[in-house]
Amino acid sequence: MTLRHGVTRRQFVAATGAAAAAFLSPGRAAAAGRRRYAIVGTGVRAIGMWGRPVAQRYQDVVEFVGLCDINPLRLEAAQRAIGVSCPRYTSLDEMLDRAKPDLLCVTTVDNTHAECIVKALERGIEVITEKPMVIDEAQCAQVLEAEKRAGKPIIVGFNYRYPPKHQKIKELLMNGEIGTVTSVDFAWYLDTIHGADYFRRWHRLRAKSGSLWVHKATHHFDLINWWLDADPVEVSALASIRNYGKAGPFRHTHCRPCPHKASCQFHWDITKNRNLVELYVNAESADGYLRDGCVFREDVDAPDTMNAVVKYSNGVQMSYSVSTYMPIEGYRLSFTGTKGRIEVRDYERQPWEPGEQTELYLIRNFGRREKIALPPPEEGHGGGDERIRELVFRKPASVPAHLQLPGSRAGAMSCLTGIAARRSADEGRPVSIASLVPGLSN
Fold first, then answer.
1. What's the rounded Cα separation, in Å, for the pair 421 and 199?
2. Contact 325/243 with Cβ under 8 angstroms?
3. Angle between the 164-174 and 217-228 helix axes, to the nearest 10 degrees?
4. 376-413 pLDDT, tens per residue?
5. 3-class DSSP assignment, residue 16
6. Spatial CA neighbour of 323 closest among 188, 434, 200
7. What is the pLDDT of residues 62-95, one digit of tens each?
8. How far apart are CA 340 and CA 363, in angstroms?
9. Any bridge partners for residue 238, and if so which?
């Protein structure tokens, strides 16, 4: 299989393996040949992305020295799922001071990312954080200042940059196949499985997630920033709650005891998933968190229907939308340029047999439409999960500039796009990125 930036997957993995020695921080125990690694926040993402695969595939370069979560029952279940025997902590300060990791992975609830990042940086510990890096402009400024003081780079886990299909889009744009890009249309579809699940969980609350403008759209805004090699400048947005929360016909606390099971199309039986039962249901007594919360609870304040227009530093204009209660999952994307157009239709879950998962077309002005061949889809966000882990844990000696690991600036610009959209929708006016964190834009 060939990666779309010109090397085979085998060559990519071989290159990362050859560079394992460079992964060690100066002054650490080089004889052991492994980096001290800890995770804070032990939910599904921590286990499936940064826990179990790392424990299984990177034992030669990584030593787990700590797991931390405020819920001790979930923490114990997560440790079993990851398959490591390191110490467990319910205090991040204690873990950082006693376990002394070289690298901290932050996979906590979004509104606590900034606090965790800053605590690690203040101790000289490097950080990789799940997206979004932060949920508001004050946190953004705090994290950027802490990074500057510490002199340690932050890595933001934008795995969506690394699937071959997304790298191919980047390649076409970099090669000028459609000339100068002038506009983008981007519509993201979340279906009644995936979209609804955000409203069962803490993501439904702005105070915890920053809303889906930040938690979910951060991924999409980073892709556009990266594809265009440009910064967002101004955002105008509209948003509303049309399907979940108070828009629902009835409600309860959560699905298991709900009296409306028979009539609710969004009823979900968490007890059919043993892993989620162990990780969440069996841990409820410690913190009261309900993983199968009702999507119609009145405390839902994150919008479920969102539209935005974004202006970029290179003059590109983007129309963007997210719908969270669709019968289909995936996205439609197009780039219009002075010499042509790129069109993408990505299918994930559909009520029909989709055939190819992603269709990518290059259409030149006064020319034909060309279908671009893509490799078969891979597990883990189209293969992005594996590729970003290779970059994080093996640090290959030579990586093309456009495939370098995303840092704090990428994290900030993507978050700030969503933060600006949220504010614009709330206040009914355009919001400039420069007004949020002055001095960040070039």
1. 20
2. yes
3. 30
4. 888 888 899 999 999 999 988 889 999 999 999 999 99
5. helix
6. 188
7. 999 999 999 999 999 999 999 999 999 999 999 9
8. 5
9. 307
Pairing of strands 126-129, 154-156: parallel
Residue 234 has pLDDT above 70, yes or no: yes
pLDDT per residue over 259-298, tens digit each?
999 999 999 999 999 999 999 999 999 999 999 999 999 9
Question: What six digits make up the tokens of 126?
Answer: 């490097």
Task: Give the sheet arrangement for strand 126-129, strand by strand.
Answer: 88-89, 62-68, 35-40, 103-106, 126-129, 154-156
- For tokens 């479920």, the residue is 304
pLDDT band at 441 (very low <50, low <70, confident <90, very high): low
Task: Give me the pLDDT at residue 13, please.
Answer: 37
DSSP 147-193: HHHHT--EEE--GGG-SHHHHHHHHHHHTTTTSSEEEEEEEEEEETT
Query: Given a cut of 50, is residue 240 above it in pLDDT?
Result: yes
Kindly give, in sequence order, each residue whose CB lies less than 8 Å from that of residue 391, ignoring residues fewer than 6 positions away. Answer: 16, 162, 399, 403, 405
Residue 212 forms beta bridges with which residues? Answer: none
CA angle 184, 209, 416 (to 5 degrees): 45
Q: How confident is the model at residue 442 (pLDDT cuts 50, 70, 90)?
A: low
Tokens representing 38? 């800890």
What residues have CB less than 8 Å from 108, skipping those under 6 apart? Answer: 40, 41, 116
| Maximum alpha-carbon separation in the chain | 66
- DSSP codes, 416-431: HHHHHHHHHHHHTS-E
Distance CA 12, CA 440 (A): 33
DSSP per-residue codes, 362-417: EEETTS-EEEPP-PPP-HHHHTHHHHHHHHHHH--S---GGGSPP-HHHHHHHHHH
In tens, the pLDDT along 176-191 reads 999 999 999 999 999 9
Task: For CA atoms 135, 136, 141, 146, give the dihedral sign.
Answer: negative
Report CA-CA distances (Å) from 59 to 12, 33, 47, 205, 403: 19, 10, 16, 37, 24
CB 425 within 8 A of CB 238: yes
Average pLDDT along the chain: 92
> Encoding tokens for residue 399?
């990586």
